[in-house]
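Holo model, LTNE7NMQ. Inputs:
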Amino acid sequence: MGIKLGILGLGTVGTGTVQLLQDNVGRHSLLQLVEIHRVGVKSLDKPRDVTLAKSVITTDLESIVNDPEVDIVVELIGGLEPARELILKAIQNGKHVVTANKAVISRFGAEIFTLANRQGVYVMLEAAVGGGIPVIQPLKQSLSVNRIHTVTGIVNGTTNYILTRMQTEGSSFDAVLADAQKLGYAEADPTADVDGWDAADKISILASLAFGGRINREEVSCEGIRQISKTDITYANNLGFVIKLLAIAKKVSPTDCTLSVRVHPTLVPKTHPLANINGVYNAILVEGEPLGQVMFFGPGAGAGATASAVSSDILNLVARLQTGQISAPLDPLLGCSHQDYCQIAPQSELTARFYTRFLTLDQPGVIGKLGTSFGKHGVSLESIVQTGFQDKLAEIVVVTHDVKEGDFKQALEEIRTFEAIDSIPSSLRVL
Ligand SMILES: NC(=O)C1=CN([C@@H]2O[C@H](COP(=O)(O)OP(=O)(O)OC[C@H]3O[C@@H](n4cnc5c(N)ncnc54)[C@H](OP(=O)(O)O)[C@@H]3O)[C@@H](O)[C@H]2O)C=CC1
Ligand SMILES: N[C@@H](CC=O)C(=O)O
Ligand code: NA
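Output:
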């Protein structure tokens, strides 16, 4: 029995997936059952890196999700609409879905999985987080016997590639972003990468699986890497850190199920396991009881790596379809059946260490004033040093101990009003 796929999208990931499925020798033998029945694209005239019969390709994506012959719809067009609507129609029509679309799943997961559970179909999403790294299935299965307390990840390949090259080659942000786009790592609109939204989508999905509840994507706080300058990378390096865009989901306290879920550039100690994850590589560090720490590492974006994850989901479904193991109720280790929302703590209540760089007039007493203001707001400092001059302005770098974010922000607001303060070019958290 052949299993018929309707693939929506033939861009970076769609092309990689078709290539993998067409070149199936030496891979799992069940892949030989897969038939690429229909492929949906936007433009029929675009040159393609794969050969498919003309009759297979169409611009009518609705006809694919409505095609009674299609068993599995593989959504690889990205974006919110029409991806959401097509996924819902496919489910409504009783088709299983494989998607790489973290933007849709993190925002519309409740709607999608509620319908999928009602229709008795699976929605698989291994490619949506960490590209080729198997992390969704391990969280659903092997790790789910643990009480997880923290998930910390480098989950965006584009920004890790940019930060790595800025760090190692001193390259400019714009030039490296253009390279990441050429390599097929970046989203169609790279703002989603650079401003941290893509990482926020991914940590919402990981948090939901790790902590067993739905996550309201709107409550995930998110800062991107636009403000990161070569100056900060150099100072961080001198202080023993590298700068990484981290996505973090953690229990606020061991006794409370409230979570902190956020994305921000972070100074990571060079000795930390995540400090050496470079280029397009991603890593996800999961900490729980009784397991301790486990880290998943691998290529986080790109055609081949992501196709591997997409095809592993297809394989999982093919195995079940072929052995007749798909019928309601769904296997709880393969489906998603969370009902309740996790409580997310407000950012101001959380504690963190901060690195902050000030440009000030070169006057006596400035460091004293900064120290007094921080002290007044209960912000304890680990170090405060004048590091040099930029033009005629003195540059002062402060590193705090763990402080309440709200208190730290209030201190910064006060300091900003001081006459001697020219600007605060950067303020970053320290892991
Ligand atoms: N690139 C990567 O490394 C990774 C991407 N992902 C996710 O995979 C998904 C696909 O990404 P990627 O392959 O990079 O995207 P691309 O932009 O390279 O490809 C998108 C494909 O979808 C088609 N398409 C888009 N909109 C429509 C529409 N409205 N109607 C018909 N066809 C449409 C395009 O058609 P046409 O070719 O005719 O323009 C194109 O073939 C996204 O959700 C992304 O977040 C996940 C992990 C890694
Ligand atoms: N744009 C994303 C692609 C994979 O999800 C990234 O850079 O990580
Ligand atoms: Na993955």
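The chain has three domains: 3-131+303-322, 136-297, 347-430. The two ends are 52 Å apart (CA to CA).
Archived with the compound record.
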